[in-house]
Amino acid sequence: MEAVFLDVDGVLIPIDNSWAYIHRRLGVEGEAQNHLKQYLEGKISYEEWMKLDTALWIRAAGGRLHRSVLEKLYGEVAIPEETLRSTAKLREAGLKIALLSGGVDLMVSRVARILGIRWWKANRLIFSEEGFLQPGGIAEVEALSKDKALLKLAEEIGVKPAYVAYIGDSHWDLPAFRAAGLSILLWRQENPPPKNLRSSVNHVARSLLEAVEIITGG
User: Fold this and answer.
1) Strand 119-127 to strand 133-138: parallel, antiparallel, or no bridges (unpaired)?
2) What are the Cα distances from residue 40, in Å, to 7, 24, 46, 123, 170?
3) Which 3 state secondary structure label does DSSP give 171?
4) Domain of 188?
5) Contact call for residues 27 and 60 (beta carbons, < 8 A)
6) Regions in the chain scoring below 70 on pLDDT
7) Is there a single domain that holds both residue 120 and residue 160?
8) What is the pLDDT of residue 135?
9) pLDDT (tens digit per residue) in 128-147
10) Are residues 96 and 61 in the same domain?
11) What is the CB neighbour count within 10 angstroms for residue 67?
12) What letter does residue 1 receive in the DSSP assignment?
């Protein structure tokens, strides 16, 4: 392997989804679930889904939501020691490290900055010149086609997908698992992973450090 692409939510940080995290903090989980349902049923596009969710945040904040508020909320998410140790181990092995997330760029860019990771790709929010959130966004990593984002990121870095190891933790990662040369499902739960996930990866790891050891050989 020449590079390791890491999912962020649930893999590097202790929140399952950086979109849902803001839904919870702003108290709009119920309405946001309706948007998810519409997307999965094919009634709205991913861009429309982003627009509905961000409009929901703006409304919940009283009609104006400044970038600094979102940065503060994301800044409260801790980076576990295991994440620091795991990325350091990958770097020591001479591997290129990149983040590939269907989450929010404010969260992903913060993680990349703290870990010293140059390459990352996530969905981007849009702000006015004054820093207020605008409905919508730029879909860099669409939920159901993460493989396309992986191929694009691999090209940008200059590595063939066959030499990319990918670590993810959910069904949203299935397309990326199939596009990578080595795929590892991070499954911290006690119950066995669903068959469709298990059959789509090369390995299942119970911790991030275990996943890294599979890639580096110990």
Assistant:
1) antiparallel
2) 21, 20, 10, 18, 15
3) helix
4) 3-15+78-131+138-216
5) yes
6) none
7) yes
8) 98
9) 999 999 999 999 999 999 99
10) no
11) 15
12) -
Torsion of CA 60, 61, 65, 68, to 10 degrees: -120
pTM for the whole thing?
Answer: 0.96
**Cβ-contact 69, 127 below 8 angstroms:** no
Residues 105, 183: one domain? yes
pLDDT at 177: 98
Last residue of a domain, one of 75, 91, 114: 75
- What pLDDT score does 115 carry? 98
pLDDT of residue 46: 97
Q: Please, what is the Cα angle at 212 between 208 and 213, to 5 degrees?
A: 115
The tokens of 152 are what?
């694009």
Query: In 3D, which of 184, 100, 179, 197 has the Cα closest to residue 143?
Result: 100
H-only helix segments in the chain: 18-26, 29-40, 46-60, 67-75, 81-92, 105-115, 146-157, 174-179, 195-198, 208-216
* The two three-digit tokens of residue 116, written as one number: 């010293």
Token look-up 């050891």 returns 213
Q: Are β-strands 133-138 and 96-104 bridged in parallel, bridged antiparallel, or unpaired?
A: unpaired
Which pLDDT score is estimated for 80? 98
- Structure tokens belonging to residue 64: 């104006």
Q: Are residues 67 and 152 in the same domain?
A: no
Q: Tell me which amino acid residue 50 is.
A: M
Decide if 66 contacts 31 (C-beta within 8 A). Answer: no
Q: Which position has the token pair 């913060």? A: 110
Q: What is the pLDDT of residues 8-36, one digit of tens each?
A: 999 999 999 999 999 999 999 999 999 99
